Amino acid sequence: MLASVLLAALPAATASQLQLPPLLGRHPVGTISLEFTDHSRTAPSTASNVTANSTEPRRLMVSVFYPTTNISIHSGNHSRAPYFSTATSAAAFDTYIGNATGLLTNLLTWAYEGTPIVPSNTSVLLFSHGLGSSRLLHTAFLEDLASRGWVVVAPDHPYDALYTEYPDGSFARMPNSALDDFPNELPGLVDIRVKDVQFIANLLKNGTLLPRLSSPPTIGILGHSLGGNTAAQAVANNTSTFPCGANFDGGIFGPVATTGLDQPFLQIGAANHNQTTDATFSNFWDVLKGFRREFTVNGTVHQSFMDLPVLRDTLGDDYPAELHNQSGTEPGSRLLEIETSLIDAFFRFCLTKTKPSDNLDQVAKNLSPDISAREMW
Questions:
Q1: How much is the pLDDT for 377?
Q2: Ribosomal protein: present as a keyword of the record (predicted)?
C-alpha cells in the first residue's frame, strides 16, 4: 500500500532517452488537471483526525485523460504532458523515492495537455488510487485506457495520498501518523474516499467537471488496493451512480464485504494474492450475487498494478536492482496490455453495454497463460 517502498534511489539518467510504452488504443489522448473544492466537508481525512477542528474545505486534485484528435493536437500546438505535473511535485516524490528529481520532472507522457476532448461515448471511468500512492503513479495505465476511447477521471485522496500539489503551490501530504492504528484506520479512510468519488461523480453528472460531454455520463468505478475497496463500497452505496466496478488487488472489508453486491464486479489479483491466500477475496466472492469474474495475473506483486513495472522497463539497466522485487517480473508493456484489455472489455459489457460478457471471457482467454481465471476455463 505504501508508495515509500516503490522507487527509492532512481538514478540520474538522461531524460531525453526515456520513453513510456506506446499507447495501445487507436485514439490520441489529451489530459487536464483540475481542482475542485467540496465545501460540505473539511480537510482532515484520516480516521484519527477526522474530528479535528478544521475549517479548511476538502480540496481535490483531479487528472482527466480522454480521447482527442490529431487535428486538435496540432491546430492548438499542444505539448505532451510531463509524467509529474511540476518540478515541485517531482521533488516532493523524490523525498520518498530517491534522487530522481530531474529524471521524473522531464519524463513525458503520451497525453497532450489541454487539447479538446472528443469522447467516443458518454461513459466515464473513475479511478481511485491506493493508500500512500497517488493518481500520478498510474499515469501510464490511465492514458492507455483513454487511448481505447474512455474518458478517465482520477482524483487524489488528499492526506492518504503520498503527496498532492495544488495550483497555488500549496500541498497535502500523507501524515506519518496516518497508519498508527492500522488496520483500524481503514474503514474511516474508505468512508472518506467514497465521499470523494461521489462528489466527483456529482460534478460529472451536473456538467461541472466535463461540460463538453453531450449528456450526463454513466460512470464505472475501479481502483487499486484501498482504491479497489473504495470502488466496491461506492457501488454498494449508490448503484444508480456506479452500476459496476473493478478492483486491482485490494483486500475487501467494511460493509460491502458482508452485504456483497448484486451488480457486476471484477476482481484482478496479483500472483500471490487470491482466494487461497486472502480470506477477504474468498468471502467477497461468495457474496457477489451478480456477474462476477476473478483473474490472477502471473508474475505480479501488489505494486505491479501501479506504473512501477513501466518505470522499471523505461529505465532499463539503470533501474535499481534492489527494487525489482517491488515490481514483479511481468514486462511493463505486457502488463499494461493485460490491465487495459480486461478493464476495457469489462466496462464495455457492464457500462456501455456494447459488448457481451462472452467478449470479456474471450479477451481473458487470449491473455493466457499470463493470467488465470476462477471458474471459467
A1: 42
A2: no
Q: Where are the domains of the chain?
A: 3-373
Fold annotation for 3-373:
Rossmann fold (3.40.50)
- 3-state SS string for the chain: CCHHHCCCCCCCCCHHHCCCCCCCCCCCEEEEEEEEEEEEEECCCCCCCCCCCCCCEEEEEEEEEEECCHHHHHHCCCCEEECCCCHHHHHHHHHHHCCCHHHHHHCEEEEEECCCCCCCCCEEEEEECCCCCCHHHHHHHHHHHHHCCCEEEEECCCCCCCEEECCCCCEEECCHHHHCCCCCCHHHHHHHHHHHHHHHHHHHHCCCCCCCCCCCCEEEEEEECHHHHHHHHHHHHCCCCCCCEEEECCCCCCHHHHHCECCCEEEEEECCCCCCCCHHHHHHHHCECCCEEEEEECCCCHHHHCCHHHHHHHHHHHCCHHHHHHCCCCCHHHHHHHHHHHHHHHHHHHCCCCCCHHHHHHHHHHHCCCEEECCCC
Mean predicted lDDT score pLDDT of the chain: 87
pLDDT tens across 251-276, in order? 999 999 999 999 999 999 999 888 88
**Segment 86-116, tens digit of pLDDT:** 777 777 765 445 455 456 677 899 999 999 9
